[in-house]
Amino acid sequence: MKKFDVTALGELLIDFTADGKLSSQGNQLFEANPGGAPCNVLAMLQKLGRQTAFIGKVGNDSFGKLLKDTVQKAGINTDNLLMDNNVPTTLAFVHTASDGDRGFSFYRNPGADMMLRSQEINLDLIKNSKIFHFGTLSMTDSDVEVATKTAIEAAKQSGAILSFDPNLRPPLWKNLDLAKEKIKYGLSQCDILKISDNEIEFMTDTDDIDEGIQLIRKEYDIPLVCATMGKNGSKVYYKNIIVSRETFLDVNTVETTGAGDTFMACVLDAVLKNGLDGFDEQKLYEMLTFANAASSIITTRRGALKVMPEKEEVLNFLAEHK
Question: What is the distance, to the nearest Å, from the Cα of residue 46 to the centroid of all Cα atoms in its chain?
């Protein structure tokens, strides 16, 4: 029996989110929200009763200490969350449009999450995990890319299921051809893929979701593929089955930070429950329904890591939206 349900490697940072208010001097106020896609996923999994661990690095500064404390309070194992004495914690400023969609400005040149090295990874954490989850932000720099690939190889050797979310952030790449190359690597390694509509178009040059996923599946043998499409809901592609589910639009939406991570966590929870080979059409529909509902809830809150919904909250939400 493996100790951890999911271990994730990647970025842990502060998302500065505009709260819509002005100071007494008329300046825009920002809220410092703990974030980072891989750890957001783990935070939601903890809410679903799963045991998780995080591998990464933050600065040995006030923000890094805040992040480590937040992750520990979420119940996530932090044995391999390291603190860098020389490089500060990565910061992201989230700019939210009127429809809740986002843009990002990053302070990461470098950021502490980029300083993780292969020899610093606790491979026992990975070997004791049922699922290993990763993205591409830990492949934007050569040394941390080597660390990421070391972890992926250890996960494969241990028989773990590999989960991948490209989480494309164009400002963090030297050029987008390099981003595409690293996403292709992730596609070649994973058993579970969560990919957004804009990432599908980026990788396949088509805005037709079904066509884009067909191209990806033709090139990469990925057992379970989920496409997220914002207000247009989500789809899952599994064997010869395609299931779609509309979203739950909420008039109280303030921003979409963490929605994809919440969705990803619910997918991984369903895989842990059913096994990668244990899905049928009904179970896939139930997975999408729960994931869409949880994602809708998180859009009504600023940030993600600290405010993931409880399982009972999602179930009550679904009962109200039958």
Answer: 14
